[in-house]
Target: DUF3623 family protein
Amino acid sequence: MTFLSAVLIASLAWWIATGLVLGLARAGSRRFKTVMALASGVALLGLSGMIATADISTAASAYLAFFSALALWAWHETTFLIGLVTGPRRVAAGEAPREKTRFRAAFLTVRDHEIALFATVLGLLWLMSDAVNTTGLLTFCLLWVMRISTKLNIYLGARHAISDMLPDRLSYLKSYFRTDRTSGWFYLSLCGSAVLLAWLVAAAATAATDHAAVKWTLLASFAALALIEHLFLVLPVRDSALWGWAMEKANKVSSEKNRDHPAVIHTTPETKTSRATARA
Model:
């Protein structure tokens, strides 16, 4: 029963948290200060929760640390999607100023976001170095590693990497996605994710305490969800359909606003890569 409950809770948390972040990001253009105040408050509660449960090894403390890590992660996702913490390059690939390499140009679009995430991981490692309850730390690190893997996949090549979950303000990022092929990294990352999932499942199955069982089951659940998200990159499936309840109203408001104030659309020179991206 412990395992089933943890799986259900992790799945619901992933679905609800993702939807809330998408909704907040789209509301940010109209209520920026309110959204940032709310996201920052939740992040502070999350950090406090991780610290408060660091030396408590119960099933409840594992759940609380898990949700605390999600709250902290949600702040990073919101600041990125809202356009506050992204990178110094905010134009499409091929537009001036031109960079020496495609990788440098792509990295500059997300540089500040990546630095903020890395700094947070280092900070959590320092804060939780002697913690008994590492559920929150491991949850945040798992999300970070899987996100890096996803970003490498959409940069190196994944046929269905284009997602309509990106808000209009970040539409230029799609020009850096490669959709004309599926790279070898995808298969390597898929195998790595499967191995990690198997290890976490084994750890959950052999857990000696309720705390350990909840901890490893939550992590295994998120590893499984990350594996599914990787598959979305190569399958002709609209992942955003899962969060229509969070995006529908925001997209309607955005469409009405765009009719009154048409946005400037970034374009990319007609190259094989840009034509392949446009087809996606």
Observations:
- The chain has nine helices and no strands.
- The radius of gyration is 19 Å.
- Confidence is low (pLDDT under 50) at residues 253-280.
